[in-house]
Automatic annotation (TrEMBL):
InterPro entries: Beta-gal/glucu_dom_sf (IPR036156), EBDG/EBM (IPR043534), GH (IPR017853), Glyco_hydro_2_AS (IPR023232), Ig-like_fold (IPR013783), Ig_GlcNase (IPR041351). It comes from the Eukaryota. It holds the Pfam family Ig_GlcNase. This is Glycoside hydrolase family 2 protein. The keyword Hydrolase applies. Residues 341-447 form the Exo-beta-D-glucosaminidase Ig-fold domain. It comes from Actinidia rufa. PANTHER family: MANNOSYLGLYCOPROTEIN ENDO-BETA-MANNOSIDASE.
Amino acid sequence: MYFSCYVQGTPVKLLRNHPSLALWVGGNEQVPPKDINEALKNDLKLHPYFENSNGSSNLKNDISPVLKDPSQYLDGTRVYIQGSMWDGFANGKGDFTDGPYEIQNPESFFKDDFYKYGFNPEVGSVGMPVAATIRATMPPEGWQIPIFKKLSSGFVEEVPNPIWQYHKYIPYSKPSKVHDQILLYGTPKDLDDFCLKAQLVNYIQYRALLEGWTSRMWSKYTGVLIWKNQNPWTGLRGQFYDHLHDQTAGFYGCRSAAEPIHVQLNLATYFIEVVVNTTSDELSDVAIEVSVWDLEGTCPYYKVSEKLSVPSKRTVPIFEMKYPKSKNPKPVYFLLLKLASLEPAHRRIEEKQEGGLIQRIFSHFSWETNGLRVSEINGTEDGVAFFLHFSVHASKMNHKEGEDTRILPVHYSDNYFSLAPGEEMPITLSFEVPPGVSPRVTLHGWNYHSGHTIM
């Protein structure tokens, strides 16, 4: 909670019972005026029970009845920090040592020199929304994608249209440091193609950011805040959902990396890590299953670890992923990491040896259960179903170019996901349908551009 004004503890009384409140902060990248800061320090003193993390019984016996009385404190349970870059945040001195806020090479997030300090109060990156949001919020002049200007250094400079510049667009390249991350997937043909490639980069950027951070959590880092989750206007930078409440793929990349128990590839060392056991219990009797897939559905690399135990709040490197060093590795491949109890992992080995590849997508049947409509999707093609994403629309026979038919917001249990052969994934969609409107749920994928109507 940041303070912009302070009158007799009013904001504290208003918010102190909120379950998501972690601490009180006097100002964002600044400290309050001296009189307000002193008042906050006095009014937000910690109750003695919360000053001592050991909670010793001797301390409790030595406290006077007046100091023990919770009614003497506006809060007493949460620490007060005078500013977002003071008192343990960034370099702790109020210098602008947060950030960065621009595109990065994904492996950079894992390197020791990415950030010097323990807690980064602000870090951000790109945030391009989907093409439908651009068309819904900008005139046709704003539908032009950037010009990719090749420099003598070999890097590419993106030159966005003036409307994107006004909306604070963050380029997907940084000449002299980061090659254009969109061009890694081919030159975009149009706005739809550009925004689809941008979603893939969004996903990779924010997943790598969180994975890199948690790889060093509690050994170097103590925390991070991402700037920002949501855009208060139609801006084109750092956002997990846009002004119309449609999530970008960055949201799902971040959420994947922030799982309480997570398995990941360290992009700097290429070691598989059991990372972020943020639960209070030790993780025991588990194994990691590692497989590599190509678009055709073949699996040239497969490995299962020995039985593992991972302590609470620890990151454990397990083994190196050596497929890139193997003889004739595929230039493009998909890495699938799974964490499971040891016995189910062995069962999956048998299934891979004996079973065929799952066929994917595009025929379906539906039924109603408990007020929910359920659709099961099977398919007719082999291989990896890459970067699948749902969207919900109002059914219309005819609509004008640029007209936004989406129903928003929609809460997805997952989106922007991929399925290797043999995988299944239940997805739940929740949304409110406007009166008189029939919803249409569609599924698109990287290797299935035309889309498919689910229901």
